[in-house]
Amino acid sequence: MRKFLVLLLVLPFLTFSCEQQETNVVAADKKERPEYAMVIHGGAGTILKANMSEEKDAEYRKALSDALEIGENILKNGGSSIDAVQKTINFMENSPLFNAGKGAVFTNAGINEMDASIMYGKDQNAGAIGGVTNIKNPINAARAVMEKSEHVMLSGKGAEEFAKVQGLEIVDPSYFRTENRLKALERAKAKEMELGLEIQDLNGDYKYGTVGAVALDKDGNLCAGTSTGGMTNKRYNRIGDAPIIGAGTFADNASCGVSSTGHGEFFIRYTVARDIAAMMEYKGVSLEEAGNYIINEKLVEKGGSGGVVALDKDGNISMPFNSEGMYRGYVKPNENVVKIYKNE
Ligand code: ASP
């Protein structure tokens, strides 16, 4: 009986101290993690300052910061990381500057075939589409696969039919054609003739213009998405890494979100996006270290060029690439960065 009385007396204090501890943990978390964050890329490759006109440079920087602003407005107002990723990518898909949506590169057969994927870190749900030719915004179709189907990946005609049933905007394939990309196909074909072998050229002059975004919302949920036209002069309904979960896109609230750009075959074979998250998950390695190792050591050793943008659950950002440049940028509250070349 006495013991019971003592317990009754100390119980309120015990509960109080537990509550105190919990509040402290939450406070520490909040302090560490920015309210929101987003990182984007518009492709990696042979992007040299010496080859870029001032106007083009400014055009790309403006497009990247406009894209970031779209995502930031959503996140700032409490919107979800899924919405931020989708709307930001929509903007880049609609811009002819990038190899996604309008401005997608051409296949050997002279058409535009697009791939895209999206993954949500909270439940690791994912959606992807490969080889579509008439969906205005491929990332919207990837999101619809994630949210409105029991599948993860749909391709070709089936994916197009699904998008139509879902009420997504369908356009005439000619919508995606741009002069610059057509010229890149011609250059790739000329080079093929010269070399006498089949090449899947990297946009004619070794630029990968895929777009991607990773966002962390106020609820602490990560989302990653990637959208692309693939590689110039691709044949045989080739599908790259962009729609492959674990290669071009990955997100897990336990570690990080990643979106890739580069020579897709290498990103698929070396499961680039997943490897970065796995290093964090299983080995406790930091995002910076994991990204650098996979992109600047492992991939270099294997001969794969490109890069990733990545964002971890605590809001840390990493943008490693092993090519000359990568269109990239990020936002956090009171921070806004856009870069193209190695250091600027
Ligand atoms: N990764 C893309 C692909 O191989 C190309 C790119 O990043 O631009 O399809």
UniProtKB/TrEMBL annotation:
<dbReference type="GO" id="GO:0008233">
    <property type="term" value="F:peptidase activity"/>
</dbReference>
<dbReference type="InterPro" id="IPR000246">
    <property type="entry name" value="Peptidase_T2"/>
</dbReference>
<keyword id="KW-0068">Autocatalytic cleavage</keyword>
<keyword id="KW-0732">Signal</keyword>
<dbReference type="InterPro" id="IPR029055">
    <property type="entry name" value="Ntn_hydrolases_N"/>
</dbReference>
<keyword id="KW-0378">Hydrolase</keyword>
<dbReference type="GO" id="GO:0016811">
    <property type="term" value="F:hydrolase activity, acting on carbon-nitrogen (but not peptide) bonds, in linear amides"/>
</dbReference>
<protein>
    <recommendedName>
        <fullName>Isoaspartyl peptidase</fullName>
    </recommendedName>
</protein>
<dbReference type="GO" id="GO:0006508">
    <property type="term" value="P:proteolysis"/>
</dbReference>
<dbReference type="Pfam" id="PF01112">
    <property type="entry name" value="Asparaginase_2"/>
</dbReference>
<feature type="site" description="Cleavage; by autolysis">
    <location>
        <begin position="209"/>
        <end position="210"/>
    </location>
</feature>
<keyword id="KW-0645">Protease</keyword>
<feature type="signal peptide">
    <location>
        <begin position="1"/>
        <end position="20"/>
    </location>
</feature>
<feature type="binding site">
    <location>
        <begin position="238"/>
        <end position="241"/>
    </location>
    <ligand>
        <name>substrate</name>
    </ligand>
</feature>
<feature type="binding site">
    <location>
        <begin position="261"/>
        <end position="264"/>
    </location>
    <ligand>
        <name>substrate</name>
    </ligand>
</feature>
<feature type="active site" description="Nucleophile">
    <location>
        <position position="210"/>
    </location>
</feature>
